[in-house]
Amino acid sequence: MAAVLRQTSEKPRRNGSKRKRSVNDERGKDSSTAKKTATEPAKRRHETDGDVDESIKHMDPGLLADHISKKIKRSFRDLSAVELGDKYLSQRIFSDTTNFDAPRSLQNLPLFLEHISDSKEDLSISGGDPGSPHTIVVAASGLRAADVTRSLRIYQSPDSAVAKLFAKHIKLPEAVDYVKRTKIGIGIGTPQRLLDLLEKDVLRTKKLKRIVIDGSHLDQKKRSVFDMKELLDPLTELLSTPPIKERLDAEGRRCSVYVF
Question: Which PANTHER family does the UniProt record give (predicted)?
Fold first, then answer.
């Protein structure tokens, strides 16, 4: 009888231990879930914001041209000296931005545009005709183009769109149709998309004053737009295409390239 009592008295202790472990396990799961939830937004922010190459802001036109030439030479090792020469960019097309002291972070991009423009108000005015922006911003990816577009939406007005011209869900025919019918003040896109729109003759350059290359931004692999061959190739082609080249080479510097 005593043995039976001992057995029955031990069972509640074992059950109590199980309940305690169960509660602790649940608490552990909750804690783990909370930690994961807390860190996920930070990871997403890092993926979006990336890092910044602060050396860019110290480069005058000569240093920029040399910097990009080295990137071209590294990316196109199979080209001859003559072929490389065709891809190199002249320092004449770049404007000096070394007097803009603020960090080249996304939040300072609007300040940068105001710094290189005649006035803040000019940034909210379109070229008048559909597809005739005064400013083109060259971004490294669709995600970055979306971030840049959001940061520059302060310059959007009823008669002047701040237009994202590239994203995974925006196919070329859709972009062509949009540019054809929209008065654009600032257009943002990847090098290839901008080149495609120029070749389709819907993106016009007659009012173009500035081409801003988002050159300080680094992706998660610490690469800038100048480090990736798939971006550098269309970028150099974009800046050498006749409509752009005519604006860059025109007397009185109708248009200039600024590296942010």
Answer: PROTEIN CMSS1
